[in-house]
Design brief:
Layout lengths: L1 H18 L16 E6 L4 E9 L3 E8 L2 E9 L3 E7 L7 H23 L7 H32 L2 E6 L2
Antiparallel strand pairs: 1-2, 1-5, 2-3, 3-4, 5-6
Length: 165
């Protein structure tokens, strides 16, 4: 048992080291002009703006100020500590999500209620209460899924593209 645990830990350490993402300067070439970025300089200054272009030694960006657009800047590679891409959250519309969950749950509950009603009684109450219960369950389920989507997207708002070594 100890040997298996030791092998598992060694495997995880080696795998984590192999899968560790490097943040090289060449990865900046994958950015599209207009992507929102945040640049941290080695002197501690933070710049927010839009990516314009990059070459082997210089990053060009449009810098924003509190009042809006500020200026274009060319920043030398050796002055940059970190470049982070700011992603848009694109959260789903909660009304559509809940309505869709209620409709799907209501249909499933209505069908299940109608199928499970005894053959000697009318099926309408089973269909009604099944649809009502299914609709509520579908709405709650869709709400949970929506919260999960929101948390996931909000947790991944920033992606490190480059980090100086």
């Amino acid at each position: 048992m100890r040997r298996l645990l030791a092998l598992t830990i060694c495997f995880l350490l080696v795998t984590a080291d192999l899968l560790a993402k490097t943040h090289d300067w060449q990865e900046l070439e994958a950015l599209n002009p207009g992507d929102s970025i945040k640049v941290t300089l080695k002197d501690g200054q933070n710049l927010n703006g839009e990516f314009r272009s990059v070459n082997t030694t210089i990053l060009r960006m449009a810098v924003f100020t509190r009042s809006g657009f500020g200026s274009f800047r060319e920043i030398e590679r050796d002055k940059i500590r970190k470049v982070v891409k700011v992603n848009n959250a694109n959260l789903p519309d909660p009304h559509k999500l809940l309505l869709t969950g209620a409709i799907i749950g209501g249909l499933a509950g209505g069908i299940a209620g109608g199928l499970n009603a005894p053959s000697h009684t009318p099926k309408e109450p089973g269909i009604f209460f099944g649809a009502l219960g299914g609709g509520m369950a579908g709405m709650v389920g869709a709400g949970v899924v929506g919260i999960g989507i929101g948390v996931h997207r909000l947790a991944h708002l920033h992606t490190t593209i480059y980090e100086a070594k």
